[in-house]
Amino acid sequence: MLKFAQVAIKYWEEALTVKKPGSGKQLAKRYCESGYYRTVTANNSIVCYKSKCKRDVLCGGVKIPDQYVGECYQLKNNRLHRSYRNGSGIPSDGYVLFVDAINTITCYGGAAAYASSCLMDEETDRPILGFINVCPGNMGVHYPEDRISIGVFLHEIGHALGFSSYNFAFMRFPNGTPRTPRDETRKPKYRDKYGHYIPSINTIQKITRRWRSAAGWFTKDFYAFVTPKILNAAKKHFNCEQLDGADLENQYQTGPIGSHWEGRTYSSEIMAGRIQIDYSVSRVTLSFFEDSGWYTVDYSKAMKWEYGRQLGCDFSMKSCLDYAQIRRQHGRKIIPFCDTVNEARCRDAFSYGRCIIVRYGTPVPKEDRFFSKAPFDTEYPPEYFGGNDPFTDYCPTMAVS
């Protein structure tokens, strides 16, 4: 797995350059064994009383080496005693990434890997330290699994670098000022009922669209990026000048705003929720990193991305059923979607596969129903059938091989 990680790290190192390095080296804080007893000195060091300084500071499940951790004092007999000294720190334009391989509860759910950032630059909010945990046995090393494994590392490093709902409220304008207003602690000003930071409407907006399914007409909400570089890249890819936002995933989230692109319209993009063998790091994802305010981007590193390319506003702003019916009315193929189980054909100019339709044990959500009659196994009503990937809003698509 190390060689796959190295390929992915090299890609991101070549694609992104830190735009505004901090003024000094950064250190993770070493807090106290009891979180109730700590304070911070004038030089931003931790002081513990009625408690010892923590010996180990973790990022994910990984112990952060002392060289990246700050000093910590203990108060004994009304005198300060330094238990740990400052490490040498993280370079102002650097990033420290830990890679681990431990079976966790997340792995038992079938994940190949997961990642997060653990520390942000105090001046710019750029993530500067993070981790990836690779789930043992859930990633392959031989073709075609090896290509997917590289994609997993590209994807997870993308999260660690900042493509995560936690980080969206910390994004910056090109001049370095916060896109989202801050409170007196320099944190984003507002949180939702889950405790997640809420990005400003100049960054992400809630968009309500009229939505057709086999069960009728509905309204469906999406959270979508509206920052200039992202939105312009999405408009060009889909050939939709009226596009109102680059949609984020609305399935299986811990909060209202997802950390992936919407699977229905961005299925093979590297930051969609499921890695496809024909994945691409597109200009849309690279535009996120430019719009974050943390990086300058080498767009020559963008990969060719065919999924949904030039399919217009009907594809990018409407349900897959609505799009399919409009295409049929004009005698056109409904790619990248499909309606005949196991039919084999091209999904786009780059990929070939077969149509995957499955029967679920419970009905597909009403707003996501594609079939008005059962495509097979007619003992069951049509609402039990859909595509095999909930991230695509149950739209039947071509499984690429």
TrEMBL record:
InterPro entries: Peptidase_M8 (IPR001577). It is an enzyme of class 3 (hydrolase). One of its GO terms (biological process) is cell adhesion. Keywords: Hydrolase, Metal-binding, Metalloprotease, Protease, Zinc. The active site is at E156. Pfam families: Peptidase_M8 (PF01457). One of its GO terms (molecular function) is metalloendopeptidase activity. Zn(2+) binds at H155, H159, H260. The keyword Cytoplasm does not apply. Binds 1 zinc ion per subunit. Its cofactor is Zn(2+). Its EC number is 3.4.24.-. It comes from the Eukaryota. GO terms for cellular component: cytoplasm; membrane. Belongs to the peptidase M8 family. PANTHER family: LEISHMANOLYSIN-LIKE PEPTIDASE. This is Leishmanolysin-like peptidase. It comes from Schistosoma haematobium (Blood fluke).
